[in-house]
Amino acid sequence: MAEVSAQARLEAPAEKVWAQLTDWPAHGEWNATHTNFPKGGPETLEVGATFQENMKLMGFPAEVEWTVEELEPARVLAIRGKGPMAVTVATRYTLTPAGDATEVRIDGEFTGAAVSLMAGRLKDSATAALEESLRKLGALVA
């Protein structure tokens, strides 16, 4: 298993950050690993909703079938997906209001036999992608 996380203070209220985070057509503007949603984002954002995402991890394309596991608007979005080579991917976005700003934390988890072969490289690559994503997200909502 490989676990990664990144956190940043974004100078925008949680509702504005949430709106950008869940603006599926604009996902590629800030998410460093996102390539596209072949069928669009989830039609209805609710627990149990599913959607497909094409991503690029460590320079390799990957298609993930996501399921929304936890949802608290403007606070928490947790998704879990199945990727290539029997890898399971989990991502959790946590938004914590801080006055006029928002503390945003992204936690990621990768599990599966293929992960153990490249856990170190995967952690470095995924952490860098999360940090870049938070920088871009912060610029969009500022």
Q: What integer value in Å does the Rg equal?
A: 14 Å
Instruction: State the strand order across the main sheet.
Output: 1-7-6-5-4-3-2
Q: Report the uncertain regions.
A: none
From the 3D structure, determine the CATH topology: Alpha-D-Glucose-1,6-Bisphosphate, Chain A, domain 4
Distance between the termini: 35 Å
Helix content: 25-40%
User: Please, how many domains?
Assistant: 1
Number of strands: 7
- Strand coverage percent: 35-45%
The biggest sheet, with number of strands, parallel, antiparallel or mixed sense and barrel status, is: 7 strands, antiparallel
CATH superfamily, please? START domain
Mean pLDDT score, rounded? 94
Architecture blueprint of SSEs:
Elements: E1 2-10, H1 14-21, E2 34-36, E3 50-57, E4 60-72, E5 76-82, E6 88-98, E7 101-111, H2 113-117, H3 119-141
Antiparallel strand pairs: 1-7, 2-3, 3-4, 4-5, 5-6, 6-7
Helix pairs in contact: 1-3
Note down, in words, how this protein is organized.
This protein has 142 residues and is an alpha+beta fold. It has one domain (2-141): Alpha-D-Glucose-1,6-Bisphosphate, Chain A, domain 4. Helix content is 25%, strand content 44%. It is built from three helices and seven strands, in the order βαββββββαα. The protein has helices spanning 14-21, 113-117, 119-141, and strands spanning 2-10, 34-36, 50-57, 60-72, 76-82, 88-98, 101-111. It has a seven-stranded antiparallel beta sheet. The relative contact order is 0.27. The model has no long low-confidence stretch (mean pLDDT 94). It comes from Streptomyces mangrovisoli. This is Polyketide cyclase.
